Amino acid sequence: MLFMGIIKERYLTKFNYDEDLQDLIVSGFQELKENQHKKEYECFVFDEISSEVKALAIHNFPVKEIENLLFFRIKIDEAYTSSFWTGSKLKITNLSDCYLLTDTGFYYKKDDNIINERWENIDKFYYKHFTEYVEVAPIPVRINLGWFSDNEYKKCNKLLNAITKYYKDIFFVHRMLIESGDYQLALKDINEKLKSNTDLPVLHFDKGVALMAYIERGKKKKLGGLYSVSLKPNEIESLLNEAEQELDFLLYSSKEDIKEEYPMIYYQKSQIARYRKNTLIQRKFLIKAMSTNDYTLQTKIQTDMMEAENNVKDVYTDINYDERKIITFVKKLNKDCSTNAIEVFRIDNRPAQIRFPKGHPIVGELYIGHPYRKDLYIPYANHDFAFFLDEINEYCELLQALGSTEITIEVIKGKNIAELQNYSFDVSGGANYGPAFKANGEYNEKKEFQKKSSLDNYLKEHQKMEPMTLPYVPENLIWYPEKPRWQRLSNQRTNNNNLLEFEEEFSSKETSFVSESELESIKADLQILKLGANISMNENILKQVERTEETIWKINIKFKSISDFALSKSGNYHNMLNQKEDEYRTKVLNCLDGSICLSDIDKRYLERKRINLGISEERAREIENSCLPQLSKEEREYIEICKEFSDIELNDPHTLKILDKERIDLGISVERANELKRFYAHGE
């Protein structure tokens, strides 16, 4: 028979269907036709269904052209009264009492109400209290198949349930293929079905499952085996993208009947993220999947969640800043803890590397990560002011190192310095945030505060200093690498430039690091956490995420002229070296070790150190010369006498006698005279 044919031929060699079930269906249809005809119904079975009958069925039901019609029943009275037949031809008309069985599903029409269910969605047909029902979970639907005795009802139900089972097995043959490990054949079968059932959710889900199973098998390299395959990374990523598209089709469809399957879909999405080693995304989908009531799935989620949280704890600070920017803490995770802009952690299982201000973190508080201190998180409320102060604090440290003599802060808009000091805080194991200028013992410092008026909230802070070291850039600055203007300023003070005045404006808006779209997403997430997740949040949390008033400060700087840093070979020269130059000076002194000159070996060693420290050749020579012992008046006179002779003459016995006499008259030892003659007279 046609309806038994195609799928049976394709898969019978691999999966043996119940022959008794097939016989029951064939004989059952014949008996159904005979009995229904006795009850004044016109019935059409299998190949008896002509093109005219099919046209009538399509006219009354949403039947697709590709569906094979198995059984079509029409009430005879209705057929005749509505001029159903015209001579020997069938007239297309609207029927009010009929039902249709196809190889796709069951159709039933009574008056203007139509029931249409696919076989794979039907749980069972059953008869109860002289009434037929078709049960499609979760609600049974009452139908009238036109039977009049208990025995006939039982036969009909047996037949319909046999058809349901048969077509369910055929429809879900790809699942058997997946279970047997034949993923490629399973995918081929699913793709064929999708050609005629593009909007059928179960096929999209099963395709996602088959793709993930195929990837899992492909990552396991085997020496043999019928379905063994080794996938390359680009092939795996392509399959992951395809699986993701299938699952997203389900998540973004508007069909209510698949929402109960969302937990399983989310779990599959978490597996895609796991393959991509995106632990945060994996964790989000695992949290979403927590709504499941399926014990087996719950167990998988718990196991995967433990693995994901252990992984994320070890690498959290290495994750892209925008992905880990905002976090909060709860006592226990639930399905509503998966949000878009906020990462939610259990308070007793937070990433170990991150630090907080003293007294934090606490449950229900919102935190934001420092943009340049990867391990630091601070309360979200007024974070822009805290970062603003941190940025200016470092800027002033840089200005001092570059040789500033005066720093003046003007409040152009917003809060003044005294007000912003309220937003400074201590970080456990770290530094204090605030607008204080740092004095490092190398400045003679004076501070002056000038208030223009107590009414206009206009404050200046004026700081005077006397720098004693040459301009340099301090190490371990965190804002500096991200500030091109600061870098240009440093270049204008350190690379043979002599910038004397500079002006810079700072805005708290630039240190918010939260865009308008992110802000709206944060607000939506907070509503979910506060209402949907039933989490106890800070009562003022929604007010705290509103934009704060912008504060703008202008900073004016005056620098000491480079020419005023007089180079001297006195002992005070050491005070004018920056950190790297001072390190080079120490290396030079170690090489000299009491000698008055550097050997060739010393010079080669120091050249390597100079390059590593980034010191220019000219500056290195200055430092070396400053380390050499100072010459006495007699030693300088002896050098001048040596310069009057050539190299050849200096080796002449007569010249040596002259120099020896001068040495004795000047009171210089033989060893000292030889050193002076070698390293000073000829510049070696």
Topology:
Layout: H1 2-11, H2 19-38, E1 41-45, H3 51-60, E2 69-75, H4 76-81, E3 85-86, E4 89-90, E5 97-102, E6 105-110, E7 113-118, E8 124-128, E9 131-136, E10 139-143, H5 150-171, H6 173-180, H7 183-196, H8 201-219, H9 233-251, H10 262-275, H11 279-288, H12 295-315, E11 326-330, E12 342-346, E13 366-369, E14 377-379, H13 383-401, E15 404-413, H14 417-420, E16 446-453, E17 458-464, H15 484-494, E18 501-507, H16 516-532, H17 541-544, E19 552-559, H18 579-592, H19 600-613, H20 617-627, H21 633-642, H22 647-650, H23 653-666, H24 670-679
Parallel strand pairs: 11-12
Antiparallel strand pairs: 1-2, 2-5, 3-4, 5-6, 6-7, 8-9, 9-10, 11-13, 13-14, 15-17, 15-19, 16-17, 18-19
Helix pairs in contact: 2-5, 6-7, 7-8, 8-9, 8-10, 9-10, 10-11, 11-12, 18-19, 18-20, 21-23
Please explain how this structure is put together.
By secondary structure, this protein is an alpha+beta fold. It has 5 domains: 2-171, no CATH class; 173-254; 383-512 and 551-562, no CATH class; 567-627, no CATH class; 633-679, no CATH class. Strands 1-2-5-6-7 form a 5-stranded antiparallel β-sheet, sandwiched between helices. A 5-stranded antiparallel β-sheet has the order 16-17-15-19-18, covered by helices on one side. A 4-stranded mixed β-sheet has the order 12-11-13-14, with helices on one face.
What is the molecular shape? Answer: elongated
Structural class of the helix and strand makeup? alpha+beta
Strand order of the largest sheet: 1-2-5-6-7
Mean pLDDT metric: 76
What portion of residues is helical? 40-55%
Please, how many domains?
Answer: 5
**What is the strand content?**
15-25%
* Count of individual beta strands: 19
> What radius of gyration results from the CA coordinates?
44 Å
The profile of the biggest β sheet is: 5 strands, antiparallel
- The residue ranges in which pLDDT falls below 50 over 5 or more consecutive positions are 1-17, 79-83, 221-228, 427-460, 567-572
N-to-C CA distance:
109 Å
Number of helices: 24
